[in-house]
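Task: fold both queries, return tokens.
Query 1:
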Amino acid sequence: MNHPSGPETGPAIEICDLKKEYGKGRGVFDVSFAVKHGETFGFLGPNGAGKTVTMRTLMGFIRPDEGDARINGLDCFRNRARIQERLGYLPGEIACMDEMTGAAFLEFMARMKKLRDRTRMNELVEYFELDPARRIRKMSKGTKQKVGLVCAFMTSPDIILLDEPTSGLDPLMQSRFIDLVLQEKRRGATILLSSHLFEEVERTCDRVAFIRAGRLAGSMRMDDVRKSRKRVFAITFANAATRDRYVRAHVDASPRPQGDASVEVTVAENLDAFVKDLAAYDTVDLTAREQTLEELFMHLYGTMEKGGSHE
């Protein structure tokens, strides 16, 4: 795989002490992370957390107040034209030329990217079942998103930045997008994917980082996330009195808001002890689920606020 510049030993994408402040607590503050060549990195967080600001800084659209953003060792703001030549990018808000048809816009973008062979572009149009004949202003949000995805991937770029890539897509197309990312990973592409949808990150990413209110809570390898995820059990007791007795004996049990005689309990390792203890209570239902990535990172964020860290 040919990387456009910079030693392969260095990271493909690097952000160091990035700060961009917009007032009233908005922006990003002291954000640092690096993405290795060939890695898929998930950038997670709620809307407004700072994901788009970070992405736009990497594209060279925003000049940071402090810190550095580099792609293949090149400064993202000073060398933005050179970087963008070889980059795939899907913005969070797609602003296309509304009066153009999808086909005309894709052709315009292909010429701008100096794409001689349209084979990959046409494959992606078919893959996402995109009808490019309509004018862009008459397209739904999901159809515009498909146009953006074709633009991002059609040059088979070495590095791809995707800001909320499945926004507006139906479940079938979300699944196709995930399969496409897995194909691109096998090809050796480096992908930075910002999202608030935890399933797509869980299925595609090698590492994930969580950002909240402009600050990075931490990053973890996806394998470590899987190992550290706990089970959440919903227990329904025979009556409210039994539930109350259980809650008094288990400070980590939280009554469920439905108002019935049930609680939720998070269990880490000792499942045997949990089950044996529960046998002392009259139970009518027990269901289990995996802790979500969001719950895990919110726990991580809470420990960091208390002075802990996890890297």
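Query 1 returned. Query 2:
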Amino acid sequence: MSEPTIQELFSLKGRVALITGGSGYLGQSLSRALAEAGATVVVGSRDLDRAKQVVDHLPSSGGAKHRAVVLDQMEESSLNSGFDAAVAEAGQVDILINNGQQGHALDLTNVTAEAFNKDLQNATGYFLLARRMRDHVVSRGTSGSIVMIGSMYGVVGSYPDAYDGICVASPVQYHALKGGIVHMTRHLAVYWAKDNVRVNCLSPGPFPSEKAPQAMVERLKQKNPMGRMGVPHELKGPLLMLVSDAGSYVTGQNLLVDGGWTAW
């Protein structure tokens, strides 16, 4: 058996990738990474028009025809219909990126039980979609890769003084959610390894959008060993390693892309 080249290991040609939240701030870069590596990309979003806009700007390596589907991971009926639509339109799904995120800007001082429980539904949606993916792959007798999008805040606590006097603290329910997703990744990985389904977690560090308060961003920079924030394209390489054959012996891992934040 010949050794595959680096180009072959990182290629996604002939594969179909479904990404939730593909029209979001980080989702757009993740979608481009998948397309640039040769995959057919199905962009899932609550807003079909936004998903179509992303699809229209994705590169088409080798003639891949990208698709857009309505998919809300917070609603079981929507995530099932979205997954079914992806399979119907693209013929199969080989890669799932659980990236969609909905939450409330409420912190530990004012979050309600209703908002807390609602935000944790993201984890339920991640699991249900992952199970659909696992069952789909097994029914086809092939292999698959699932990547959960976690956060450095699923591993460490935040710095209260980074937010004090500027904005609400990092939501406690967000920390509970992302910590759960990191550990759910490990649990699913060990159960589904025998099914040739790899499950990993990609956890970004500080990647604030232009909407984030600048004063908070400046404080966060002081907390980071690299002294700066991440930009979305810096997640493209790590994602590609996890979903491609370059990571064929990697499962159950949480890859932190945080500029050294969790190394303190």
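Both queries returned. Flag for query 2: The chain has one domain: 6-258.
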